Amino acid sequence: DNKGPAEKHTKTKNLAGASSKVVNANPQETSASKNCGKNLSSYWLMKSEPESRLEKGVDVKFSIEDLKAQPKQTACWDGVRNYQARNFLRAMKLEQEAFFYHSNCKEPGIAGLVKIVKEAYPDHTQFEKNNPHYDPSSKEDNPKWSMVDVQFVRMMKRFITLAELKTHHQAHKATGGPLKNMALFSRQRLSVQPLTQEEFDFILSLEEKEPS
Fold it and tell me: Where is the sequence biased in composition, kind Polar residues (predicted)?
């Protein structure tokens, strides 16, 4: 199963009032994240659920169409509660691009492109008791969880399905192609994943081709 957990929810966001200061009591972790970002790439894949699903009475649905409907087509990417995914958020830099991936739905796959318009800062949902992503162990003076702001760039020219990506991944494992080590298949549960330049370019090239 490649659905991955729900880690995107923007019904309670407050972009205007959000602090841009990243509070982190562990400088080693920050520098490690930065180095990790350099070694990885400038490209990402970010999963969100396009279909309604209630979690603690709150709908966690957030599709690329929902992002397009936001003011300035911009939203904070909150609700990530996996340490590795959080570290990837912290490694993101302004203007880096990410694929917006629809997960936990009938037809998972890549729907469009977004860019990072605000680097990591504390995720406000960790402190909201009525939020499904509330974390009572996280403290205001040392928040555990971060988020970034993303802005809609464009829809893919065609929806690139998980099944199609998987076909290429399997073929590339045998031939040494660009998707041979893609995190989507080696680390399925991660809602935020790095992409290499080769992976990003290959997936973009699929837009121009008929589904294989």
Answer: 21-34
Written as six digits, the tokens of 105 are 């739905």
Q: Taking the CB of residue 192, how many other CB atoms lie within 10 A of it?
A: 26
User: Per the domain annotation, does 178 fall within a domain?
Assistant: no
Q: How far is CA 37 from CA 1, 31, 42, 69, 93, in A?
A: 27, 10, 7, 30, 9
Q: How many whole angstroms separate alpha carbon 191 and alpha carbon 20?
A: 22
Q: Give residue for tokens 């935020």.
A: 192
- Tell whether pTM > 0.70: yes
Number of domains into which the chain is organized: 1
Q: Which CATH number covers residue 74? A: 3.10.590.10
Taking a C-beta distance cutoff of 8 angstroms, is the pair 89, 82 a contact?
no
Provide the token pair at 108.
């998972």
Residues in the chain: 212
How confident is the model over 42-72, as pLDDT tens digits? Answer: 999 999 999 999 999 999 999 999 999 999 9
